[in-house]
Design brief:
Length: 398
């Protein structure tokens, strides 16, 4: 059965046929001549298409049509249709065919180069796409689009220095701020430098990340990790607290670090006071504190244990399996039951995604600063409760 896009292709052939007929009728022939018969080549091409013999149709098309002002838009339309259908090789052939014409106007050449660069990108040929986009970014009416595409390519290739350069040029030419995106590029460089043990370079990258507005707390988080790894516990604690204060969702990342440092320094009382102040100021964060504690197996700290206990008592799905309210009234027996249920929750939490993108819904176990699906930055947020629906769905479909 011919698909919908086959009919679109057939439509484009008909357009070309009409253009050819009109040119023949009003262009090159004498007015007295009879109208030319409908070109047999077009009918052949159409026949190939409707029989799903796209390759033969394409060959036929490339051979018979001269690229000129009247037909070039149809060539572009056909090329982009092939690309959208995922038939990138065919799109590439069409666009290369246009570029090969010696008499092409510079504007049309740029359009063809831009289309070909998009084909390469769709085919995953990043090096070739990068080369063409760089050429267009150097000076053409596709500068802004090309710089945007280059940022995307450098993100995929993790070439953060080049991404920063392209991003800064795009800010100027596109007239919009990319501060958050560029700050993340610097944070990527900072994290790589810190992983390689070059903390001085890492600190400098964090500083660069923190100059623009809006800022990302990822800079502070990276700086806090550097302080942690260089045994500067005071700075690390100060930064982790600031992070939680400004962006409470980062409790999921910072709480385990804070607990580790306070416990190591024998300052659990101070941790208790800090957490009580946090919960008083932001009561809504109690379930995220509880969930983070469950996932990371944090226990033995009264204020956190109390969050976990309240979370378990108020979890409606859990209530359908076990009467925790009644168990909480039984002393030792109740404590053992709570510990068992908590252990089970921890296993369930480990089996379900902890973070979800607020733009596209993509979920993952660990925090991803750039969503791999929609490519947006800093759109993931942590779950603050065990995703029972996901667990149940998983066990049904398995
Ligand atoms: Zn997303």
């Amino acid at each position: 059965m011919p698909t919908e896009s086959t009919f679109l292709l057939a439509g484009l052939f008909l357009l070309l046929a009409a253009a050819g007929w009109a040119m023949g009728r009003f262009g090159e022939r004498d007015v007295e001549d009879a109208p030319p018969p409908l070109n047999i080549d077009y009918l052949k091409g159409l026949n190939f298409l409707l029989n799903e013999q796209t390759d033969q149709a394409l060959e036929h098309f490339l051979k018979m049509v001269r690229v000129d002002d009247k037909t070039i838009e149809t060539h572009f339309a056909l090329g982009s249709l092939f690309r959208r259908r995922g038939e990138v090789d065919r799109a590439i052939r069409i666009h290369q065919n246009i570029i090969a014409r010696p008499d092409l106007a510079s504007e049309q050449r740029d359009q063809a180069l831009y289309s070909l660069a998009k084909d390469y990108l769709a085919a995953g040929l990043l090096d070739r796409a990068e080369k063409l986009f760089s050429r267009l970014a150097a000076g053409s009416r596709y500068q802004v689009q090309a710089l945007g595409a280059l940022c995307g390519i450098y993100e995929q290739e993790r070439e953060w220095g080049k991404a920063i350069d392209a991003g800064k040029r795009l800010e100027i030419l596109g007239g919009r701020s990319l501060a958050l995106q560029i700050a993340h590029y610097y944070c990527e460089l900072a994290e790589s430098a810190a992983d390689a043990g070059d903390f001085a370079a890492a600190r400098q990258y964090v500083k660069n990340a923190q100059t623009g507005r809006p800022r990302t707390m990822r800079g502070a988080l990276t700086r806090a990790h550097i302080a942690r790894d260089t045994d500067d516990s005071r700075t690390a604690l100060r930064l982790y607290h600031r992070i939680i204060d400004e962006d409470t969702y980062l409790i999921a990342e910072a709480l385990p670090e804070i607990v580790t440092i306070y416990t190591r320094e024998n300052e659990v009382d101070e941790l208790e006071r800090a957490l009580e102040a946090l919960l008083e100021k932001n009561p809504d964060t109690a379930s995220l504190v509880a969930y983070t504690a469950i996932v990371n197996d944090i226990g033995g700290i009264p204020v956190i244990d109390e969050c976990v206990r309240r979370y378990m008592l108020n979890e409606p799905t859990l209530g359908e399996f076990v009467d925790l309210q009644r168990l909480s009234e039984a002393k030792d027996e109740g404590d053992t039951a709570f510990a068992k249920v908590r252990g089970a929750l921890s296993k369930l939490a480990a089996a379900t995604p902890r973070y979800q993108c607020q733009e596209c819904g993509f979920s993952s176990q660990r925090l991803l600063w750039q969503c791999p699906s929609c490519r947006d930055w800093e759109t993931q947020r942590p779950a603050s409760r065990v995703q029972f629906d996901t667990v149940l769905q998983h066990s049904i479909t398995r």
